[in-house]
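Try this one yourself first.
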């Protein structure tokens, strides 16, 4: 079996070509100079307490990697019309952050929920620490301001490991030092298997890069967070479950302090969306989320389930493909939320639905070898491309709103 990325050069080139083409179909999105693209509150487990986490999405300037094709599942907005100006002049992102934080609706919502907001996530749908995406003055000023917000105890930002180095990590660490606030940096580790990570997902990064980045963050007392993707494209349901379990354990071994398992959701203008339309991909079952979580029970304190709060909003989330008219998806989501709040897999006890046997049968379905499978599915997508149409909901995606996402939604 061909297990090395070098054996997939042709397939990878086809994937990148398709990814670039799909992204080129996406219209530019007008964004505000002064206001953040989106903000929302969600319930979260924080040091075993139920709190609210505030996410502020600054106007995205475009993930540098997405500009080169990017990850096959990622529909994150790859750039505003004002992208360049936002990078050149730090005042815009700083003003967006300040205006979001100053929005009384956020604090009013927290007051009504009777919960503190100790956790702040600042993202811009890309790499916070890449100076080609976020001006260095914005990076540092926003972080400095964030540490001074009353009640904030943890700040999370995101970056690929390629944009983390001793110089910028030590500078960020210096800003938070003595503030008493934890800084966490999330990285899309996604999959431990090189072919899955670097061909199926096109993440491009070695295990050593992730491991070195985790070590570097720990050296400066910054918490490394790994995102683990459940059900990368081209994998069967069972392969996807096994890969997510192996990846979560690998992330712990190489030094990550927290894992957020991200069940795949389907985003317009992505390779995954095109595969779905070609009939070669289905969003993962929630039974698979449960299975992965149970098999990670011994690392449950570090293992949470994410997958909510995207901007733009995806066209489909992970769900049970259940047509027996019960509310099994609702009950399973409630159980997942309970797990996130307690980190106890007994949260799944007693949740049953007859669709579980359909899922079990689907887990037994095998397929042709991965390389042949990728080739066949890419051919289907290439045939579909001239007729590709998205199900993007423009209304949802331009709404800048105060949303409170499902209770306990991310660990
Ligand atoms: S997942 Fe992250 S690194 Fe990959 S294309 Fe999207 S924003 Fe860029
Ligand atoms: Zn069901």
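Now uncover the answer:
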């Amino acid at each position: 079996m061909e297990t090395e990325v070098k054996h997939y050069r042709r397939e990878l080139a086809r994937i990148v070509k398709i990814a670039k083409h799909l992204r080129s179909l996406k219209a530019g999105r007008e964004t505000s100079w002064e206001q953040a693209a989106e903000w929302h509150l969600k319930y979260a487990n924080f040091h075993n307490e139920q709190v609210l986490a505030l996410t502020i999405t600054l106007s995205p300037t475009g993930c540098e990697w997405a500009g080169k094709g990017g990850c096959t599942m990622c529909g994150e907005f790859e750039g505003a019309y004002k992208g360049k100006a936002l990078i050149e002049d730090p005042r815009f992102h700083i003003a967006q952050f300040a205006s979001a934080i100053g929005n009384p609706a956020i604090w009013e919502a927290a007051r009504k929920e009777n919960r503190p907001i100790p956790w702040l996530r600042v993202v811009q749908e890309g790499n916070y620490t890449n100076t080609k995406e976020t001006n260095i003055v914005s990076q540092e000023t926003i972080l400095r301001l964030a540490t001074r917000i009353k009640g904030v105890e943890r700040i999370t930002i995101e970056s690929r490991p390629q944009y983390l180095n001793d110089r910028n990590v030590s500078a960020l660490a210096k800003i938070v030092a003595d503030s008493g606030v934890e800084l966490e940096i999330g990285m899309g580790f996604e999959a431990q298997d090189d072919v899955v990570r670097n061909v199926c997902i096109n993440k491009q990064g070695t295990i050593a890069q992730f491991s070195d980045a985790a070590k570097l963050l720990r050296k400066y007392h910054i918490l490394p967070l790994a995102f683990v993707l459940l059900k990368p494209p081209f994998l069967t349901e069972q392969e996807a479950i096994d890969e997510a379990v192996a990846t979560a354990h690998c992330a712990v071994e190489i030094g990550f302090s927290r894992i957020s398992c991200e069940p795949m959701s389907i985003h317009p203008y992505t390779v995954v969306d095109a595969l779905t339309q070609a009939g070669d991909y289905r969003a993962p079952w929630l039974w698979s989320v449960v299975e992965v979580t149970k098999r990670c029970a011994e690392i449950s304190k570090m293992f949470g389930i994410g997958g909510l709060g995207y901007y733009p909003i995806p066209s489909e989330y992970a769900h049970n493909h259940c047509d027996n008219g019960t509310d099994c998806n609702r009950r399973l989501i409630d159980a997942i939320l309970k797990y996130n709040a307690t980190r106890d897999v007994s949260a799944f006890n007693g949740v049953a639905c007859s669709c579980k046997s359909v899922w079990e049968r689907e887990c037994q379905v095998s397929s042709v070898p991965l390389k042949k499978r990728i080739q066949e599915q890419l051919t289907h997508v290439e045939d579909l491309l001239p007729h590709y149409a998205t199900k993007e909901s423009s209304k949802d995606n331009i709404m800048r709103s105060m949303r409170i996402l499902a209770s306990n939604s991310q660990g």
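Discussion: The two ends are 37 Å apart (CA to CA). Residues 237-253 form the longest helix (17 residues).
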